[in-house]
Design goal:
Layout (H helix, E strand, L loop, with lengths): L1 E2 L6 E2 H7 L6 H9 L3 E3 L2 E2 L6 E2 L4 E4 L2 E5 L1
Parallel strand pairs: 1-7
Antiparallel strand pairs: 2-5, 3-4, 3-6, 6-7
């Protein structure tokens, strides 16, 4: 799926929530903390990592391209 970024960046946990992968920001933070999320193919453990245009986030069978 694609996510259109409105500003300069979005926090990783917020991206997971807004795309429906996580039911809440708290669940998104837990998923990141458990090592279930990758950014550009690398496991990301920073819950509020700044995600910018051109990056790809993957979690379970979901892949988000930030445009």
């Amino acid at each position: 799926m694609e996510f259109e970024l409105k500003g300069e960046f979005i926090a990783l946990c917020d991206l997971l929530k807004l795309t429906g992968i996580a039911n809440s920001g708290g669940q998104g933070k837990a998923m990141v903390g458990d090592g279930l999320v990758t950014v550009d193919g690398v496991t990301e453990l920073r819950k509020t990592a700044k995600i910018r245009k051109g990056q790809t986030v993957a979690c379970f069978d979901n892949e988000i391209t930030v445009i």
